């Protein structure tokens, strides 16, 4: 019989203070104190060396304020602040845990003990054994069958007998004894005059706390009886304080805590950076142990395993050979796929060839549309230079067999930026590719914006491999050729390597995803989006070219009129589009104040900030230039450019969405960018009038209402805002009433506007200066508004400080759904850079959380529409808004389905499963995007 898994849960907070007090002061080369870090790392290494567990996690207290302080403000209030030289060691200690590939967990508002209780209960429910590494008496209440404690200092197991020795009762009665005895260290009041021994006698006699309190009048000792009667409420309060929560809502499962070997590079870097040479020497032998490529434990081990396989690349030109490669893919169950084309425009590109890699190191290239190569101007070597071209025989049959492989659900298809390949394959008639994985998206989920996610960069980073550059086979500049002209011997090495490297990266990144515990983010949020975005890009949106040209002419006339006014104010004609000439007019001719010259060119600065400041001071010419620039941008970026972007074959504009560009996980749109069309100005909104529905259809806009504010109210537990959202009230008016003390009825719109500015500005860490500029008030008045806001909603300040602390400790923040967002610069010594990073840390989990929510809605929506028998199609996503093309006969049913899916795709609930904030969706319908929104 297989032994059950053993989960070891380490009370990290207890380790920290033991380590700190057991060693004299120590500093690393830059002066940072590290004695606690060194002691903690030493204890962690010993634990890893001695333990027999299969699963491991270290738990920390996230902060001093927990839900128990809400119950009893004096809880632990008398505890002194940590020593000054220990505070900077807290994040380093967490870094030590992660360096050794051990899960490091904490939760704001909870103690580490609550997390330990929860994970212990969940593990026991699966049949696992649990060992809690701590000698903390508060954790002894968790001891039961399958759950024990281990005192790490005495290496002593603590079971039921040891608990009875300590408290005089069985483990399940420990909280009753603690409730009576209290705890002066934690400021738990208990009942005066009753210690642990007396409490144990009373609980043994009466069975439990409630029975004892109900029968307190029977106690023969007068003082004891009187104390119990007078302090019964304190006893009940104390029981709530000492009872550990084992029902915390957590996303991790036992599988997430499976032991894995650390990345040697990460360990060496951590120990070297902190000056722990003796520890590095101690672990070097272990780190240098060669990994087993057949059963790797870490991304680094995997990389060494897949990289050691030699390249075995082949050209496939017969159906017989193609069948053999397809059979290998079926046997492997996974195949990397890459397409070669004659264009970077995926929807219009011709499929030149396909490469397959059924296992690391082994790949082939199948040419479909190569032509006789042109070698002039290229330094090509090999037999292929000038040789006759031999494409795959019977192209149609070859495509049909490839199509069957791509559509086979039993074989995983892996690509790098596979959405591009989906378009190319669809153009060749291969429109079903499932299931699929994408190494670019995998890399983004793991590392976010820490680095680029191009295949060449990832190959160097994870495999230590320099791939063949495109210029090596196609040349560059005026001599560059398209891939269909590349000689086949050159093409096979380049194309087969692409597929092979993609598969090798897949092996590494899949392991890294598991090690980082980000599988859920990838599997539920990003991977399912790939085919959905591909369909949206293929569908496109109808754009009225005539309307755009009319708008373009209108904008040109406005610009001409403004230019006339500007010249009149300047007293002479000049090129309004020239920053240099504009600067001369403003600061040399007109002598306006506040001008600054560029240190490089000596020219006056005339950027938007400079012009905004001058316009705000009442100068007319800068204000007119700002208007002129706005029309120039609308004309060049939208009305002129969008006409050129209309696909002649479809009459539609087809944008391209990316999953791996923005820091927060938001989708980005480009070529053309349809997410930045201005909507706040009347002229900007006119551009949306050109986005129209075809005959028999309408456009439907479904927009999450104030989604980011709702997320803040949820994650920061702001009671007043939660209640306002739950009751469907005007959130900005409610905020104004709460902050400024004005009645809702007859509220001055300006007061509501101020509250709205703070509500939204707070998400971006708005400063008094920023709010002052936005509202046109003094900096002091703006600062007073923010202070009043924070005073009324103190949960906001707590949330912001907690988020910043997490970012400083981890280097990243997380959305409510587990996506990690790196925050570079959070520990920068430059105050301006650090302040910018702190603002980013506050906003990122909220903006990223909103992006996660709409992704989940987009994933659910196509199936929901199909199941309802509706023909609506997703066209666009613009941050919190979805745009659909809907048959006119199905408007009502589609509206109901869309609203239901979007409002229920995520439930924002508390630990008891009660919804804290509802998701509201505004749905509009019209013949154009402007009328639907």
UniProtKB/TrEMBL annotation:
Residues 684-890 form the DNA-directed DNA polymerase family A palm domain. Its EC number is 2.7.7.7. GO terms for biological process: DNA-templated DNA replication; double-strand break repair. Residues 3-260 form the 5'-3' exonuclease domain. InterPro entries: 3'-5'_exonuclease_dom, 5-3_exonucl_a-hlix_arch_N, 5-3_exonuclease, 5-3_exonuclease_C_sf, DNA-dir_DNA_pol_A_CS, DNA-dir_DNA_pol_A_palm_dom, DNA/RNA_pol_sf, DNA_polI_H3TH. Keywords: DNA damage, DNA repair, DNA replication, DNA-binding, DNA-directed DNA polymerase, Exonuclease, Hydrolase, Nuclease, Nucleotidyltransferase, Transferase. Gene3D superfamilies: 3.30.70.370, 5' to 3' exonuclease, C-terminal subdomain, 5'-nuclease, Ribonuclease H-like superfamily/Ribonuclease H, Taq DNA Polymerase, Chain T, domain 4. Residues 313-514 form the 3'-5' exonuclease domain. It comes from the Bacteria. In addition to polymerase activity, this DNA polymerase exhibits 3'-5' and 5'-3' exonuclease activity. Single-chain monomer with multiple functions. NCBIfam families: pola (TIGR00593), PRK05755.1 (NF004397). Belongs to the DNA polymerase type-A family. This is DNA polymerase I.
